[in-house]
Write a structure and sequence with these properties.
Shape: elongated
Low-confidence stretches: 137-142, 146-152
Number of domains: 2
Number of helices: 3
Largest sheet: 17 strands, parallel
Strand content: 25-35%
Radius of gyration: 34 Å
Helix content: 10-25%
Number of strands: 29
Length: about 475
Amino acid sequence: MRISIRPFERGNVLLCVLCTILVVSVIGGNVLLNCMTRYNAASSQVRSWKESLDAAETGGDIAYAEIRKTILDPSHAFTGWTYSGGVYTPNSSVTYGKDNLSTSARVDAFYYDSNGNPWYRIRTQGTAPVAGLKRVGMDDRMGPNTRGDSLLRKVDFNYDHFVATYGANGDGMNKTLVPVSQPQVTRRVELIVAPITPFEAAIKAVGTFYGLGDAAMIDSYNSANGAYYFTANNPSDPHYSDSRSGNVEIDSAVATIRGMLYGNVATNGGTIVRSNQIAGTIDNNVPFTVPPFKMPTDFPTPQSSPTKVPGNSTVTVNPPAAGSAQSPISYLFSSFTGHLVVNQYASSQTYVDIHVTSDVTGTIDITPNVHARIYFDGNVNVKARDVVNESGIAANLQFYGISPTDPSVSQSIAIGPPGSYAATFYAPSADFSLTGNPDITGAIVCKTFYGNGNTTWHYDRQLDKVGDAVDYRVINYVEDIR
């Protein structure tokens, strides 16, 4: 039997197939076009989202550099910024990059530590423009519980939503509508910047190191637990853990360490002599830098007298008030060759700063409740017994060597026998020499170190958090997610 196929039925099937393909193609094209539109909008917002954080962090870097200048280049710190109400703000925002990213910052000293060093808070905002239409990428619902990508991504189309909701400073005050010139993403970050204090090791030398005598010894203790006593060989002692931090750091390959050292040693490519007498670790790959020390620009107005300590005489300083670490009672001396006595004020903890514009060759005696900082422009040449700190706490008597502005000019600190002392020296441009067999409590930062006596040296672990700031570091970072 023959089955007949009708020609017109073939045409109907072909037409149905073509129509089906056409419908599917239209649907696919519409889906693709819709996806591409949303993808372009979303990718533009994502790029701006990331770039705005980059801009905010750039503002943080700029502000952090200005804070470091307060130590490293104080005469140029916050140039082009305005100080008002305890806050530094730049005179204009910074715009950079091909995408015209912008950033601005606010810096305030929100806290002063026990040394009088300010801690800074940096608040920055970074803004990146969003290309394309004024619409969100994928979720633009604005129901009671859903506010869409415009809130999630902080995309501002017409107004700055942060200022409108939280106020310009984020404190809920002065909320207002601030128009934006174009769609943009703004992110905000906050940094906390803390001071770095100088006395993190018993001895820190930028250049060569030679010392001490064969029978010398360096150990440590913690004055918060009482007076010093030797316990570095007694693991059962409750203060044993504080006795082995007599560290030595040398940014040089020339390092000869003699005597017994209860602590760690770090050098920059050095070779340690007599390493069997070092109780801690040895690391010969620890480079570091110590910038020159500059006279603080916030040195208070000095008292009218005395103005010098002449030789063969005794000058007594009786501060008119107790002062504080942040606002000490200050004096300016043109010479220091005689005997200086610094008394406390009315049995109070008394803070005194002294700037000596010449050499220090005289003697000094500070009474128990006095906290004295001696800044000197020249050299120091004294005997150990000439440095009298009646408290016995090294942190109470600190010497700071102002680095010569001419790098060809040398600076030196020479401490000879006899005697002992409790003090710290921060003089990164000075050659430090120690002779005799003194008993020392304190720390030293210097250019080069030489010591040939059988010195006993005790580092007070409380010193790692005292002293004038020598730099700053960022200790906290957080993004404001509002």
